[in-house]
Amino acid sequence: MLKPCPLSCFLFFFFFFVFFIPQISFSCPQDQRQSLLEFKNLVTHNINNYSITDFTDLETWKPNSDCCKWQHVGCDSNSPSREVIDLNLQSLADLASMNSSVLRPLLRISSLVTLDVSYNYLEGEIPGDAIVNLTRLISLDMSHNRLNGSIPPELFSLKTLQRLDLSENVIGGTLSGDIKELKNLQELSLGNNLIEGEIPPEIGSLVKLRVLILKRNKFNGSIPLSVTQLMELETFHLQRNSLSFEIPNGIGNLVNLSTLSLSKNKLSGGIPSSIQNLKNLQTLELEDNNGLVGEIPIWLFGLQKLKKLQLGGNKLQWNNNGSVFAQSKLKRLSLRSCGLEGNIPDWLKDQTSLYYLDLSMNRLEGSFPKWLANLKIETMILSDNRLSGSLPPSLFQSQSLTILELSRNNFSGQIPDTFGESTFLLLMLSKNNFSGSVPKSITKIYGLMVLDLSKNRLSGEFPRFDHNFSGLVPWLSYLDISSNEFSGDVPASFGVQIRMLLMSQNNFSGEFPQDFTNLSNLIRLDLHDNKISGKIPSFISRLSPSLEVFILRKNSLKGSIPEGISNLTSLKVLDLSENNLDGSLPSSLGNLTAMIESPKNSSTKYAFEIHDLVVNWKKSKQGLADRNLYLYTLLDLSNNKLLGEIPSSLGNLKSLKHLNLSNNDFSGLIPQSFGDIEELESLDLSHNNLTGEIPKMLSKLSELTTLDLSNNKLTGRIPESPQLDRLNDPNIYANNNGICGMQIQVPCSSTQTEPPEEEEEKDEEETMFSWKAAFIGCSCGFLTAVAYGIGYINLLSIYYFIKNI
Ligand SMILES: *[C@@H]1O[C@H](CO)[C@@H](O)[C@H](O)[C@H]1NC(C)=O
Ligand SMILES: *[C@@H]1O[C@H](CO)[C@@H](O)[C@H](O)[C@H]1NC(C)=O
Ligand SMILES: *[C@@H]1O[C@H](CO)[C@@H](O)[C@H](O)[C@H]1NC(C)=O
Ligand SMILES: *[C@@H]1O[C@H](CO)[C@@H](O)[C@H](O)[C@H]1NC(C)=O
Ligand SMILES: *[C@@H]1O[C@H](CO)[C@@H](O)[C@H](O)[C@H]1NC(C)=O
Ligand SMILES: *[C@@H]1O[C@H](CO)[C@@H](O)[C@H](O)[C@H]1NC(C)=O
Ligand SMILES: *[C@@H]1O[C@H](CO)[C@@H](O)[C@H](O)[C@H]1NC(C)=O
Ligand SMILES: *[C@@H]1O[C@H](CO)[C@@H](O)[C@H](O)[C@H]1NC(C)=O
Ligand SMILES: *[C@@H]1O[C@H](CO)[C@@H](O)[C@H](O)[C@H]1NC(C)=O
Ligand SMILES: *[C@@H]1O[C@H](CO)[C@@H](O)[C@H](O)[C@H]1NC(C)=O
Ligand SMILES: *[C@@H]1O[C@H](CO)[C@@H](O)[C@H](O)[C@H]1NC(C)=O
Ligand SMILES: *[C@@H]1O[C@H](CO)[C@@H](O)[C@H](O)[C@H]1NC(C)=O
Questions:
Q1: For 244, which of 20, 81, 152, 678 is 20 to 30 Å away at the CA?
Q2: Which residues on adjacent β-strands are paired with residue 451?
Q3: CA atoms of 418 and 402, how far apart (whole Å)
Q4: From the CA of 642, how far away is ligand 12's center (Å)?
Q5: Do β-strands 363-367 and 386-389 pair in parallel, antiparallel, or remain unpaired?
Q6: Low-confidence ranges of the chain (pLDDT < 70)
Q7: What stretches of 282-415 show up as alpha helix (H) in DSSP?
Q8: C-alpha of residue 133 to centroid of ligand 3, in Å
Q9: Which pLDDT value is given to residue 669?
Q10: Ligand 4 midpoint to CA 193 (Å)
Q11: If you measure from the C-alpha of residue 374 to the centroid of ligand 9, how many angstroms do you get, rounded to a whole number?
Q12: Which atom belonging to ligand 4 lies closest to the Cα atom of 148?
């Protein structure tokens, strides 16, 4: 039998049911639910819609339900009031930007302990004034947005903060693929960093901070001394900002520090000696500051917990001749450009955990050590040294090595047959002294994406790459075998992934192969300086519609240019010069869409260095840097036997910067329409049989800086315009049938046509202006916008490259 319930027991049940139960069914506080709903409402209505987002993530946020049960909301289960304490609102609005003021309702929930609004494309400033009431906040993540402005001072009133992440507020450089997957990548170089100003010294008042992540913004000034008060700090990321001055020596006070990342700033001075006190230090990244100087202290290798040491890209020097007894098992080591001499340091032999090694840009010499081939390294970068001898075959049998960059050394010998056993994703051996043929086994490497064998002495036929991996398509996307001694037919069978095929300066012969039409993703095809013969086939109209660069310069092609070439709607660089082409130009050339539209920034970015594209640019060979290639639009048909009239449709190609039709047999007039090629900077029509007058319309070409009309049969007056008046070298007009004009100081006789009266006046005005302008300064064309230096791009971001194919 049940015992009767005593009074206390009765009271218990009474209170339980009457008070307690209803209290549980009470959801989060009414005002907090209201704030959340307000947020939802703002978010769903405040989208600057450039991409659809349906916010399925906030579907559970319904007005009459318990907000503690909503997705992304966490309540305090220990307190009867069940206040909201956690909000994990990552990636609500992929690809749609939102005004940061949508956060305001959330910032009224003063019970918040964690707030994560990362990956939301939030725009505008951090709403500092609204943040002050979050007095219990421990973790604040506003990373991966587009927040701008500076850090609001109110943030420093949040004394409870243990974790603050404002990293990667960046605009531009939209990334394809799922942005969340890129989260762990350190090295992406697109877009503009946003949050700016100095890091306020008040940061030192957040004494509970354990994690402080401010990387990839635009912070400048110095690293505030007050950070040395953050005694609890364990993780400190400041890389990719514009910080200058020295690293505060007091950094050594932060005894719990395990990660210190200061790479890619403008820091100067030496490595502070106090860092040797950081016994917990696992990661020290000081790469690419350029201003860091001095000897690399040997005690660094005595830090027992150190796993990642990245010092490359500074003015640091390392005396590589002493013996090092490393106390640590390093995983990543970069001593790029640290002045290392002698052999590859052999203490690395014991670094069996190493998976990333960068010793590029030093003066290392000697041969490739066998023991190095046997370590389980995944990424090995030894480019730009003086290493020589042949490569150990075991290097190619490593089952861990995926990225191997040995360009610009003096390695020689053959590429071993073991090649096919490798696991390479990326292999770069450019500018060495390798010889012999390329082993056929190379085509068995299913994952190989990037292969650069350019500038060696490799010979023989290049293996056919069309291997089918039981239905899978090989990944090869980038192949550079230019400047070798390869012969035989032009290799054209590749997997459909191929985008860049650079095979110039070899001895390839035979006709232009039809197999190229299968490569539907091809962006660049460069075959200059080979021995390709026969006609340009009409099937070129079926080449990849994404083809942007097509170069057949200096081959033995004959026949006429096929009409169907206008099908190549992405073509921006077409170079068919130095062949034996004849016939007249198809007027369809004027339909090359990409030469009509203004340039768009490049579709694909490569995470590794791509060799400059070499073309004749303004009368000399120039290397065009890949990163700026989208700016160039070029049509070069010079040095052929093309004849007939120049089709006036060429004037449609409005975005053309460079047009070269010289050294052909063109006759007739220069088309009036050339005046419409607004962007034209260089026009070469020399050595033809052109007659008539120079069209007055050419005076519209305000960007023209290089002109050659010599060796034709032109007559009459040179049109006048500020730009044309600067082009006053007589050689531009030499060997014609009587050209006159003030530019070449040949007066026009009265029989030579005079422009109509009214225009004359205007011309004179312009002329006076132009003579002045010529002294004030030249119009420097867009070449000034082009940086030639090839920055070093961390190969790790090969991942980004993968995302793009
Ligand atoms: C946003 O979408 C609405 C309706 O779909 C449309 O009318 C408006 O033009 C769009 N705004 C922008 C900036 O694209
Ligand atoms: C964001 O919204 C606030 C308030 O609605 C407004 O004052 C501000 O101009 C907006 N900012 C931007 C960049 O749209
Ligand atoms: C902060 O809280 C106080 C008191 O609850 C309130 O008066 C004030 O409006 C709040 N400030 C903001 C910016 O929400
Ligand atoms: C922040 O960006 C917005 C546009 O999103 C702009 O209106 C505002 O001027 C910027 N603020 C600062 C400080 O750059
Ligand atoms: C930091 O950048 C701001 C502009 O964002 C500028 O006004 C300030 O002078 C810079 N400070 C230093 C120390 O370079
Ligand atoms: C360092 O971390 C340890 C263990 O997490 C902790 O006990 C200690 O208080 C920390 N030291 C300082 C100076 O904060
Ligand atoms: C090591 O290099 C230094 C100069 O950096 C030189 O003075 C010293 O003699 C060298 N030691 C050995 C053992 O070669
Ligand atoms: C490259 O190595 C060869 C021997 O393999 C040597 O004869 C040659 O001088 C070296 N070249 C350079 C530039 O060091
Ligand atoms: C390449 O190697 C050959 C020997 O195989 C050598 O004669 C030649 O000098 C080397 N070339 C360079 C540039 O070092
Ligand atoms: C141009 O391309 C289209 C589709 O890519 C194709 O159907 C057509 O036959 C091509 N034109 C010529 C002349 O080959
Ligand atoms: C060029 O394109 C226009 C419009 O697309 C078309 O009417 C014309 O026939 C084309 N010209 C040639 C020569 O292909
Ligand atoms: C140049 O053109 C004239 C007529 O315009 C013609 O008689 C002559 O043969 C042409 N010369 C060449 C080399 O084509």
A1: 152
A2: 427, 479
A3: 15
A4: 13
A5: parallel
A6: 1-26, 46-56, 93-96, 172-191, 322, 466-473, 599-609, 627, 750-805
A7: 370-374
A8: 6
A9: 95
A10: 13
A11: 27
A12: 1
Ligand 6 atom 1: residue of nearest CA: 256
Return the SS3 of 429.
coil
User: From ligand 9's centre to the CA of 458, what distance in Å?
Assistant: 13
The CA 334 to ligand 12 mean position distance, Å, reads 65
328 within 8 A of 304, measured Cβ to Cβ = yes
H/E stretch holding 644 reads: strand 643-645
**Which atom of ligand 7 is found nearest the CA of 319?**
5
pLDDT at 105: 92
Which residue type does 451 have?
L
Question: For residues 224 and 247, is the Cβ–Cβ distance under 8 A?
Answer: no
Q: Whose CA is nearest to atom 4 of ligand 7?
A: 319
In the reported structure, the alpha carbon of residue 719 is separated from the centroid of ligand 10 by a whole-number distance in angstroms of: 41
Which helix (H) or strand (E) element contains residue 723?
A: helix 722-726
Ligand 2 pocket, mutate which of 42, 98, 101 (most atoms under 8 A from CB): 101
CA distance 151 to 356: 35
Q: Which ligand is nearest to the CA of 277?
A: 6
pLDDT for the residue 57: 73
Residue range 736-773, pLDDT digits in tens: 988 998 888 888 876 555 544 444 444 433 333 332 22
User: Does ligand 2 have an atom closer than 6 angstroms to the CB of 393?
Assistant: no
- Which tokens hold the place of 533? 């013969």
- Best residue among 46, 49, 54 to mutate for probing ligand 1's pocket (most ligand atoms within 8 Å of CB) is 49
Q: What is the 3-state secondary structure (H, E, C) of 88-141?
A: ECCCCCCCCEEEHHHHCCHHHCCCCCEEECCCCCEEEECCHHHHCCCCCCCEEE
* Residue 298, phi then psi, degrees to nearest 5: -70, -25
* C-alpha 667 to ligand 12 mean position (Å): 7
Closest CA to 579 of 501, 637, 505: 637
Q: How far apart are CA 201 and CA 467, in angstroms?
A: 61
Residues 6+ apart with CB under 8 A from 14: none
Alpha helix segments (H runs only) across 118-211: 128-131
Q: Are 136 and 109 in contact (CB under 8 A)?
A: no
Angle 315-319-320 (CA atoms, 0-180°, nearest 5)?
115
What secondary structure does DSSP assign to 657-680, as a single string?
A: -EEE--SSEEEEPPPGGGGG-TT-
| Spacing, Cα 320 to ligand 7 middle (Å) | 9
**Alpha carbon of 102 to ligand 2 centroid (Å):** 9
**Rounded-to-integer distance, Cα 349 and Cα 730, Å:** 67
Q: Is 588 in the pocket of ligand 11 (CB under 6 A)?
A: yes
Q: Which residues pair with 412 in a beta bridge?
A: 433
Q: With contact defined as beta carbons under 8 Å apart, do 38 and 63 qualify? A: no
Write the pLDDT tens digit of every residue in 658-694.
Answer: 999 999 999 999 999 999 998 899 999 999 999 999 9
Q: Whose CA is nearest to atom 13 of ligand 11?
A: 588
Antiparallel, parallel or unpaired: β 410-413 and 433-436: parallel
Mutate which of 298, 316, 317, 321 for ligand 7? The one with the most ligand atoms within 8 Å of its CB, which is: 321
Which ligand sits nearest to residue 645's alpha carbon? 12
**Half-sphere exposure of residue 367, counting CA atoms within 13 Å on the CB side?**
10
Atom of ligand 3 nearest to the CA of 129: 13
Q: Is 472 left (phi over 0), alpha (psi -120 to 50) or beta?
A: beta
pLDDT per residue over 633-658, tens digit each?
999 999 999 999 999 999 999 999 99
Which helix (H) or strand (E) element contains residue 22? helix 21-25
Relative to the CA of 124, which ligand 2 atom is closest? Answer: 13
Tokens representing residue 799 in the block:
């991942």
Nearest-Å Rg of the Cα atoms of the chain is 33
Q: 48-76 in b/e burial notation, b at 16+ Cβ within 10 A?
A: eeeeebeeebbeebeeeebbbebebbbbb
Give residue ranges with CB within 6 A of ligand 5. Answer: 196-197, 220-221
What is the CA angle 426-430-431, rounded to 5?
165
